[in-house]
Amino acid sequence: MKAPKWNKQMLVAPYIYISPYFILFFIFSLYPILYSIYISLTDWNGSGEKVFIGFDNYMQLFSDNDFWLSLWNSALIFLMYVPLMLFVGLILASILNSNWMVGKGFFRMALFVPNFVSVVAVSFVFILLLNTQDGLINSVLRNIGLIDNPIPWLESPWWARLSVAMMVLYRWLGYNMLLLLTGLQNISKDLYEAAYVDGATKIKSFFYITIPLVKKMLLFCTVLSTIGTFSLFTEPYILTQGGPLNSTLTPVLMLYRESFQNFNFGYASSIAVCFFVLMMVISLVQMRIFDEKE
Amino acid sequence: MEKTVKLQAAGHGGGKNIWSSSLAFALMAIVSLFTLFPLFWLFSSSLKDISEIFVNPPIWVPSVLHWENFRELFVERKFGIITWNSFLLSTTSTLISLIFCSLAGFAFAKYKFKGKQFLFVLVLASLMIPHEATMVPLFSIYKNLHLIDNIWGVILPDLANAFGIFFMRQYCMSLPDEMMEAARIDGCSEFKTFRRIILPNLRSGFAGLGIILFVKQWNNFLWPSVILRSQENLTLSVALKALEDSNNTPYHLIMAGSVISVVPLLIIVLIFQKQLIAGMIDGAIKG
């Protein structure tokens, strides 16, 4: 008697279990992204009537220097920290992977701490450290006689980009190191022993064994960093407000400005749609890498 | 015999070379200094008077500890209720997400149903929609739903968590099918099976995902700063930014507020560090 009842339940249960997710997904993700595409074809300030203007917003966006600059800035910031982060991260991971290292637990946590501390808090600390007049770094550099004139960390375009890049490095070095460490832990120690018997130095082993074997993981970290860098918002928003001269303007910061500061909702939506397409392309690349891995 | 000893040393990364190990240790120490120093500066500055923030020579540790920075935040800037908001928001959002994610993850791991393949691909694809790209329409939807300046407006979009479904699905797949079958034969209903048999076995998954979601929500900034307006509805991250005044930024108060935002998380993370690190790595690699 009971068996049919179970079967019926078993048929219905999974749909009930997944329904909260799909209901929320349709309301808060799918519908808004489709709506976003529609708004991007209109001229709208958020409260008045939407005026349909076709692809005008996109025409304007593609001839807007700020938009290209925001992508260019992201690319520059990426180049400033990602190679350094992966290289240092890999060296640190190798050190943590060796048996003789002491204080592993402490160092692992010390490197990882910046990743979960509030970005807003960290950004304000960096303002205190990098302030041109009497920020800590300039004071120390001047007191020990390394520089005569203060470095305009947040006030000249190239220094500002570098400062943002250093802050991103600060936040993500430990995280990437942990990912690389998991990659390293999968390498058999026998390989290093064989290399040692053949007379390879430790540096040679690093370049000929370690790097090739964690190549996939390095690639994976690079893709994650690409997504992260192109969606940067809080760091430049608090450190530099996108300045000076828009040198730290990022796509999301530009989207925020156009929407919630200038109320050009139509124009902002065209940025949002382009940003969505960019992220989708990067995610597809990521999935391909991931598939090859398996 | 000697050969074996040498090989062992090589396996340990050549630990016999005292110089290279010292160098490695020094490098590690320098990088740790780079990551920990800003936190030291944060704590030190939170106890300074505003006049001690930008001075040369720098004040490493203030001679008089200005605890009144914290008092001012709690008494005059409503940081008591703001901290409570952050806590309430992060906890509520995490707990509900855990329930939804484990239900959906369980369904995708252990049931056969029509359209499963397609629906799972849809979950996968939903990861590609960045939250930032939905802000403008969501804002106008919120106006109609009266979710502006409401912490539920922050919580709701984050409950649909595709990453969490993946995460819990992995854990559910590792549970043996016999567990469910035994429960069914004993006459448990499907939901009772989930609640009594499956949930207790997902504890480590809950810990890992829970801590990730909590940290993420605690530090959430962009969307809350768009929709939260009145001082008594703010979260800590938003309130910190709101302290910034165009002419005269009270950096001492911002630092004290940052300490309030950092310390609870630091404690929680130190307790759950294993789960957090394991969860983050699993999440990044499998998701």
TrEMBL record, chain A:
Keywords: Cell membrane, Membrane, Transmembrane, Transmembrane helix, Transport. Residues 71-286 form the ABC transmembrane type-1 domain. It is found in: Cell membrane. It is a multi-pass membrane protein. The keyword Membrane applies. The chain crosses the membrane at residues 12-34, 75-97, 109-130, 158-181, 265-285. It comes from the Bacteria. Belongs to the binding-protein-dependent transport system permease family. This is Sugar ABC transporter permease. It comes from Paenibacillus haidiansis. The lineage of its organism: Bacteria, Bacillati, Bacillota, Bacilli, Bacillales.
UniProtKB/TrEMBL annotation, chain B:
The keyword Transmembrane applies. Its main location: membrane. It holds the Pfam family BPD_transp_1. The chain crosses the membrane at residues 21-43, 81-106, 118-139, 151-172, 193-215, 251-272. It comes from the Bacteria. It is a multi-pass membrane protein. Belongs to the binding-protein-dependent transport system permease family. This is Carbohydrate ABC transporter permease. It comes from Paenibacillus haidiansis.
